[in-house]
Amino acid sequence: MPLSNLRDTSRMDWDKLRIFHAVAEAGSFTHAGEKLNLSQSAVSRQIGALEETLTVPLFHRHARGLILTEQGEILYRAAHEIFAKLAMTEAMIDEAREKAEGALKVTTTVAFGSVWLTPRLKEFLSLYPDIEVSLILADSELDLSMREADVAIRLTRPRQSDLIQRHIMTMRYGVYATPDYIKEHGMPKTVQDLDNHRIVVYGEDAQPPVANLNWLLTAGLPPGQSRRAILKVNSVYGIFRAVQGGLGIGALPEYMSYESTNLVEVLPETKGPSVEMFFAYPEELKASKRVSVFRDWVVAKLQAGKGAAGFGSSRG
């Protein structure tokens, strides 16, 4: 009788199938029991229960040992193929844990990805040439649990509570302008001097990572008063490019000043809000080698930048 016609095959549980496979390989209940660390009687009972489920004998029993029946041969070939594939899959998983290779989809903000991360990826890919990086720059938060990305570098704590999250640094904001702007408009000495300067800020439609990032409009003024902005932009990258182009003075994350050769800090004693940076990834990727080497590389590069230029602080 073909195995496909046997009734109730769905009731073959993995334990019984594993024991059957071991008995077929060993040729006896005793030898299989030694391999599985089970008694001969326990192995015999499991095979008997499997035969009862399938309603066919799987072994011919005789004094010299066990011989597979026709139905037993069919089941053995299927079980052997299944366990061989499982062993191969387990080996591939172990190899993936040990070797940094494969696709890695990274998401971060437009500004951080454009200004800080992408110029450094050449180094990372030189260190790990078998990793294929895809970079998604978006100020919206992608769903890592749905594998819209593998890892995220975020400037706010990720909202998904089921992610592994590591706080990697505190990023501070400073006030910047170009030397050409300062030559033309002068260097403000106090926050009150900003009344006579062009200020670039976030627009009404922007969603900055923390509140009060437009503090340059009100710093040093009585409550209820505000300065006029020369330009409002809906992203910090836009503010960066406008300030870098000499349009005016703007508040920027400190890392942006280290990535530009033509920015000068204005009013260095005036510091704006700070932003917390996090590295996040799903629990299922915690053993992934490509994730761990990328995380460690990002943290090391941020630490090196902090040490060289006083760039924020880190913990955790």
Question: How much of the residues is beta strand, in percent?
Answer: 15-25%
- Kindly report the name of the CATH homologous superfamily of the largest domain: Periplasmic binding protein-like II
Number of strands: 11
CATH architecture of the largest domain: 3-Layer(aba) Sandwich
Q: Note the total helix count.
A: 10
Tell me the domain tally: 3
Helix content: 25-40%
Given this structure, which CATH class of the largest domain is correct? Alpha Beta
| Mean pLDDT figure | 85
Which segments are poorly predicted (pLDDT under 50) over 5 or more consecutive residues? 1-10, 307-316
Report the sheet with the most strands, covering strand number, pairing sense and barrel closure: 9 strands, mixed
Report on the structure:
There is one protein chain. With 316 residues, the chain is α/β, with parallel strands linked by helices. The chain has 3 domains: 3-97, Arc Repressor Mutant, subunit A, CATH 1.10.10.10; 102-167 and 280-309, 3-Layer(aba) Sandwich (D-Maltodextrin-Binding Protein, domain 2); 171-274, D-Maltodextrin-Binding Protein, domain 2, CATH 3.40.190.10. Helices cover 39% and strands 21% of the residues. It contains 10 helices and 11 strands. Strands 3, 4, 5, 6, 7, 8, 9, 10 and 11 form a 9-stranded mixed beta sheet that branches. A hairpin with a 2-residue loop joins strand 1 (59-62) and strand 2 (65-68). The longest helix has 29 residues, at 70-98. The protein is rod-shaped, with a radius of gyration of 32 Å.
